[in-house]
């Protein structure tokens, strides 16, 4: 039947029938559609499937009409987006910019992105020849003298190469070029799909071409929906099933059937058309009523037939994909008969054994495994046939065609196919596995050697999942020399390293281990352990945490014997404590000596100066009138005595300011006023109204720190103002001295000879307090001292003192 007759029949059937309404969505689907009133449709611009009219600013084509019908059936608004090619469309899907797309062919790669609908249209690949040719063409009968032009690369080219070995294929860059090769006699036939033939048939130069055969490789067009919206896939499938088959045929005929422009110009065409119209009208009048009654049944049968055909074509496509996957997979597959001869081999097995396509068939297995004689093979056959032990697995080496050997993992499984029985042999190349196994063995041996020579105990602690108890996965041989127990004893679940810890240190051990396990962080602990013979040793445990690929958290670490270092450390700590006690004692003696000297200077020298002043005054009263020169000398002597009085007071104040007897707060204000008078730098003082009574040692110690700090400000800070604060905070007395001077780098200062800072630090430590220093270059300096009101010092406090503090030692105090 030619094309005009097909159009007339389709038109009459459409006039005789009624449109079939799409099934109404269920409640859940209606709710989903209500949440998604708009859907984004992506189409690839390729005529006649989809094309964009720049003048009208609209899309047209078979896929556009189909999606418009589906949108009306679902009651949603379609938002159109067009792309240059399929990769651009797939990139848009990955970016979440497209919800569904028509005109897609199902591929393994596409299954990761789309949920494909049932096929709605079948686009055949046609064989085209000259209109005056010999008629229908069978591809099996073509030979080298019948060149066949087609576009390469394409699915049709791959199919013809794999199916027909007799064809002389002529590659072309495009479908148009393939048809031009046919017109220029460079090819006898051309292969082109039905859609492209429809588009190119409108060109007058191709009017003399006709379809002479079918390749047998149809392209099944589907609608792809987003893989994360299964509801949309169900709705689209329902809408496609409700579309009458005749409408799909009309749609395909309107867009995908070749149109030859010269056909309507012939007189015979119109005569045949009129004749066919008359016959068809007569037939329509006779069969109209019966067609109306049978329409519904025929449509249902046609729909069932189309669905069955689509399922078969999908099954064929799936079978082809499966065969391709088997041939190009990494596992070699052999079907072997009971006589050990190979009946089937995939391409992977042929490549493993170094043979060409089909060279493995009918060859015995003993050629590739010399030890597989017939008795052994029959034994394996019986074991696999009984299926008592499940699939048989063995690792062996097979002989390749080039004489080399290949290590493989062999798995045997029994198979009944139709009326025959086979033993399916799966071959897996384990070359890399053997290499990795050898490397792993070498690394394990290297690790064992290193761990055995480490002067300590190397271990690995593993926890399979959060909350599970950890277990020791590895203990080195060093446990024998360290604690006297073999590794197996230490690794036991009821023993472990915790059993070696000294009872007095177990609490700190468990605290550090629990903290490391809870946060999956590194583990560090130092403490005492007991050896098998009861000796006590100091141990240092350090372990690094890391998470493995299977979620297991592992701690790899080592237990060092630090007994000798710990003894040195304890001896050093005792020595430091003794030095600190000696320093505190010397400071106490120094303050007492200063207080004694201050009292003697103030009392003894003051009394002598007072008597001298009285004697001078009496001499002036008695003899000044006798000699004017004597009066002048006596006045000069009185002025010297007054200066000496002031010098005595200054010396006594420097040794121990008497203002300390009035309290630390008064002494701080007095020292600040003296600093202002000497330097001209404003000094802001903040002290509480009530300061608890302090011992002389604490009062003098804080006062000396203040003196040294102010001396450093005067010598080095270049400050414009100073702030001194005294406060009570949580049972501690806090003294702070800050300036806005040039500051300095603490790290450089602490590495240098900062004896002034060391002196202040030691003085504060002797009082049981702590000193902090905060300074940055250009940002000033803040020195803070915190001393407990209740004595926490481990060293004895110095005795009463009334002397003055030491002078800061240059830049070392800063």
Task: Walk me through the structure.
Its EC number is 2.7.13.3. It is found in: Cytoplasm. Its main location: cytoplasm. It is a single chain. This protein is of the alpha+beta class. It folds into five domains: 206 residues, Periplasmic binding protein-like II (D-Maltodextrin-Binding Protein, domain 2); 93 residues, D-Maltodextrin-Binding Protein, domain 2 (3-Layer(aba) Sandwich); 101 residues, Beta-Lactamase (2-Layer Sandwich), CATH 3.30.450; 127 residues, Beta-Lactamase; 157 residues, 2-Layer Sandwich (Heat Shock Protein 90). 45% of the residues lie in helices and 22% in strands. The chain contains 22 helices and 28 strands. It has a five-stranded mixed sheet with strand order 10-9-11-8-12, sandwiched between helices. Helix 19 runs parallel beside helix 20. The radius of gyration is 52 Å and the shape is elongated. The N terminus and C terminus are likely disordered.
SSE arrangement:
Elements: H1 3-16, H2 27-35, E1 38-44, E2 51-53, E3 58-60, H3 62-74, E4 77-83, H4 86-94, E5 100-104, E6 114-116, E7 121-123, E8 125-130, E9 147-151, H5 155-163, E10 168-172, H6 175-183, E11 189-193, H7 194-200, E12 209-214, E13 219-226, H8 230-242, H9 245-256, H10 267-328, E14 331-336, E15 342-345, H11 347-352, H12 374-386, E16 392-399, E17 405-417, E18 420-429, H13 431-453, E19 456-463, E20 471-475, H14 478-483, H15 487-491, H16 506-519, E21 523-530, E22 536-547, E23 553-561, H17 563-623, H18 628-655, H19 664-679, E24 683-686, H20 696-717, E25 722-729, E26 732-739, H21 746-751, H22 755-766, E27 770-775, E28 781-788
Parallel strand pairs: 1-4, 9-10, 9-11, 24-25
Antiparallel strand pairs: 2-3, 5-13, 6-13, 7-13, 8-11, 8-12, 14-15, 14-18, 16-17, 17-18, 19-20, 19-23, 21-22, 22-23, 25-26, 26-28, 27-28
Helix pairs in contact: 1-9, 1-10, 17-18, 19-20, 20-22
């Amino acid at each position: 039947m030619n094309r005009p007759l097909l159009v007339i029949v389709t038109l009459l059937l459409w006039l005789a029938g009624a449109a079939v309404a799409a099934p109404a969505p269920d409640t859940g689907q209606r709710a989903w559609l209500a949440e998604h009133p708009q859907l984004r449709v992506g189409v690839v611009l390729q005529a006649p499937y989809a094309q964009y009219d720049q003048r009208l600013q609209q899309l047209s084509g078979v896929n556009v009409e189909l999606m418009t019908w589906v949108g009306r059936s679902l009651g949603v608004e379609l938002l159109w987006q067009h792309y240059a090619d399929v990769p651009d469309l797939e990139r848009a899907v990955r970016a979440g910019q497209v919800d569904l797309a028509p005109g897609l062919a199902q591929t393994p790669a596409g299954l990761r992105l789309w949920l494909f609908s049932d096929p709605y249209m079948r686009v055949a690949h046609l064989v085209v020849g000259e209109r005056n040719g010999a008629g229908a063409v069978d591809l099996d009968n073509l030979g080298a003298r019948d060149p066949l032009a087609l576009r390469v690369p394409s699915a049709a080219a791959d199919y013809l190469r794999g199916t027909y070995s007799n064809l002389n294929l002529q590659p072309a860059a495009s479908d148009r070029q393939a048809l031009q090769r046919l017109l220029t006699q460079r090819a006898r036939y051309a292969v082109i799909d039905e859609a492209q033939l429809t588009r190119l048939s409108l060109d007058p130069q191709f009017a003399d071409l006709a379809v002479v055969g079918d390749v047998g490789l149809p392209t099944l067009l589907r609608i792809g929906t987003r893989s994360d919206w299964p509801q949309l896939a169900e709705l689209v499938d329902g809408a496609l099933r409700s579309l009458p088959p005749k409408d799909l045929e009309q749609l395909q005929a309107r867009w995908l059937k070749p149109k030859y422009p010269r056909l309507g110009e012939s007189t015979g065409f119109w005569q045949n058309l009129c004749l066919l119209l008359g016959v068809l009208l007569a037939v329509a009048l006779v069969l109209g009523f019966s067609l109306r009654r049978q329409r519904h049944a025929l449509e249902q049968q046609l729909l069932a037939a189309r669905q069955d055909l689509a399922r078969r074509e999908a099954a064929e496509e799936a079978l082809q994909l499966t065969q391709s996957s088997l041939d190009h997979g990494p596992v070699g597959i052999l079907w072997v008969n009971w006589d050990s001869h190979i009946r089937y081999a995939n391409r992977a097995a042929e490549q493993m054994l170094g043979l060409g396509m089909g060279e493995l068939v009918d060859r015995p297995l003993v050629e590739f495994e010399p030890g597989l004689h017939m008795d052994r093979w029959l034994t394996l056959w019986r074991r696999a046939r009984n299926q008592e032990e499940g699939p048989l697995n063995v690792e062996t080496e097979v002989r390749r065609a080039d004489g080399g050997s290949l290590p493989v993992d062999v798995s045997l499984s029994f198979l009944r196919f139709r009326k025959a029985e086979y033993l399916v042999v799966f071959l897996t190349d384990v070359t890399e596995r053997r290499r990795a196994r050898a490397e792993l063995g070498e690394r394990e041996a290297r690790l064992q050697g290193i761990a055995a020579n480490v002067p300590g105990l190397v271990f690995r602690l593993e926890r399979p999942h959060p909350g599970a108890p950890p277990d020791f996965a590895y203990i080195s041989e060093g446990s024998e020399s360290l604690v006297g127990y073999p590794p197996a004893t230490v690794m036991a679940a009821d023993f472990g390293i915790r059993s070696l810890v000294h009872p007095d240190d177990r609490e700190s051990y468990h605290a550090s281990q629990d903290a490391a396990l809870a946060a999956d962080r590194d583990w560090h602990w130092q403490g005492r352990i007991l050896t098998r013979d009861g000796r006590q040793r100091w141990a240092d445990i350090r372990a690094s945490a890391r998470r493995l690929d299977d979620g297991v958290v592992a701690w790899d670490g080592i237990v060092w014997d630090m007994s000798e270092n710990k003894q040195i450390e304890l001896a050093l700590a005792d020595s430091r404590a003794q030095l600190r006690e000696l320093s505190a004692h010397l400071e106490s003696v120094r303050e007492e000596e200063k207080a004694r000297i201050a009292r003697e200077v103030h009392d003894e020298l003051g009394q002598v100066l007072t008597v001298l002043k009285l004697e001078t005054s009496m001499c002036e009263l008695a003899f000044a009138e006798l000699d004017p020169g004597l009066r002048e000398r006596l006045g000069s002597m009185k002025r010297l005595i007054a200066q000496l009085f002031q010098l005595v007071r200054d010396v006594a104040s420097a040794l121990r300011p008497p203002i300390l007897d009035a309290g630390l707060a008064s002494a701080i204000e007095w020292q600040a006023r003296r600093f202002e008078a000497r330097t001209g730098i404003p000094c802001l003082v903040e002290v509480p109204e009530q300061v608890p009574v302090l011992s002389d040692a604490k009062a003098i110690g804080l006062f000396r720190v203040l003196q040294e700090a102010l001396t450093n400000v005067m010598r080095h800070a270049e400050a414009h103002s100073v702030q001194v604060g005294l406060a009570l905070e949580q049972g501690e007395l806090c003294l702070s001295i800050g300036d806005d001077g040039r500051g300095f780098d603490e790290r450089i200062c602490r590495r240098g000879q900062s004896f002034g800072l060391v002196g202040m630090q030691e003085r504060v430590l002797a009082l049981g307090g702590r000193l902090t220093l905060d300074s940055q270059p250009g940002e000033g300096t803040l020195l803070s001292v915190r001393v407990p009101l209740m004595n926490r010092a481990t060293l004895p406090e110095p005795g009463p003192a009334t002397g003055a503090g030491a002078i800061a030692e240059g830049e070392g105090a800063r």
